[in-house]
Amino acid sequence: MGGRYLARKAAQAILTIFAIVLLNFVLFRMMPGSPERVLLRNPYLTQEKIAQVRIAWGLDKPLIPDQLIRYVEATVSGDLGYSLKFRGTPVSDVIGQRFWPTILLIGLAEAIAIVVGLAVGAYAGWRRGGRGDRIGSGISLILYSMPYFVIGMPMIVIFASGLGWFPTSGMLTVGATYGSFADQLFDFARHLTLPLATVSLGLIGGYSILMRSAIIETRSEDYVTTARAKGLTDRRVLTAHAFPNALLPMVTIIAINLGYVVGGAITAEIVFNWPGLGTLTVDALSARDYPVLEGVFLLLSVTVVLANLIADLVYGLLDPRVRS
Amino acid sequence: MSAALPAAPVETRLRAERWRLRVQATRAFARRYLRRGDGLVGLVILVVFAVLAIAPQLFVGPLQTATTATGSSLEGPTSVHLFGTDELGRDLLNLTIHGARISMAIGFLATVITIVVGAIIGIAAGFLGGWIDNVLMRLTDFFLVLPTFVLALILAPVILDVIGVEAELFGIRATLLVIIVVIGVTSWATTARIIRSQTLSIRERMFVDRARVIGGGSAHIMRRHIFPNVINLIVANTVLTFAGAVFTETTLSFIGLGDPFQPSWGQVLNAAQSSGAPGLGAWWYIAPPAACVVLVILAFTLVGNALDDILNPKAVGRR
Q: What is the ipTM of this complex?
């Protein structure tokens, strides 16, 4: 891969991340009331104490450049400030505790959705207009129209409170003691099933619709006609020629989609009270815990930018045409 | 008067001819649209919900509140309350039908903002070109990459704190105004990209040169020549934007950014969630608003896809 292509993409990503940090800085300072009042939330402060705090926090210095530079320095070194709700706890610790449940949920859901969604989409596109296509596309379109919580709430009503197969909320049974690690894992899996099914179903709709149109596009390409003319079986034309080429645009789409997935997964987490970043975000939202909100936003947007960068690089590796 | 009528002036004849062509084109379009089964289903659903949204009180009376609630708490469907009641004893049929108005109104206004912002930025970038194009497109790329939903989440409370909860415009309360603005601010980027590429091709057309030759300025050309032409081309995109706006509104309201006094479907589902309806098995609390959300988003998507196939010749055969 050309070094210039790589360098340009990396520079763009760094610039975007810097713009996100800047946006965070501006947003927090747009709020009414001075920071020390908002942060201390104490009406009985003396003037001397306020002045002291202002100096300690550097608020006596001008907003730009002094405060901005300090903000960028702190952010780069991983200091995201302190949570207002969980008094005194650093934001990075608060987020750190909630990070893994979300990663696990979204990671597994993405894996399931990519496999199922791409398979359904490829089949529907290949058999365009057939019965399988009509059923598959119809279901995909309905799933695509459903916000995650609209999938999740009926799931609870049917499979948790109705049939009693799965617990309604949480990640582990509250107050349970486990005889072995296997027991704990089983309990965890039981809690994970419904949220995982919800997020996966939400994703499958979109992926299969996009894969279907990608396959339909490749179907009219010359190399597919050539493959047919060579006398390959229908199945072989699909798996060896059409499918790999249709996968190309999907790489970018899945990466760009990641931001929406994380956003949407927030609502799935609320429905199942899953202790991840989503429930954290909503708790922070109702408590107006801005440092935590900004930390979550920063983390998610940087993740998405990096995912896009990786997608660009992967795309460059797979498709020589884009490198120029 | 009795003498033979002189031939109508050229201008009148031209106008009549233009009118005839327009009617013909509309008819051809209608014929092609009517042949699309899915687009027709979507259209019928949208018309039904539009009627509900325009006059909800005709069907179920005024919006019930905690004080005017007519039922008891969390009652299943009965002959009096066909859809059951919520935890405050409000009739869910009443809430759902009134929710149509709020959800559709927010979706509509958010779509208008999205299209206006997208059109201004897209046309300016495509028509003016040069460094303006560069700057605007970098900005657009930035918004395309950002997880806009999460941005909406942090923007909403900040804006609300800045303007205060008491503000009101055209009878829409501040909380909902913020949702409208936030959806607009975070979703114009896609529209701007599409409009820019359309502008680039329209800019090269003869009538733009002609307008310039007779002394039209850039602002005039963009407003009178480019804008009407790109708007025709993004009808399908607008309908799909509407679907996205309803989707985002529902999600934001569900998360708790809605207004309990002007409940949209997302807000009703938020109330259902916080009153523990799923765990209690109160399916009647969840099913009506959830079904409406899915139906409306699905209908917009079907109509949008049908329009896209008909109006956008390049897309033919893609679906």
A: 0.81
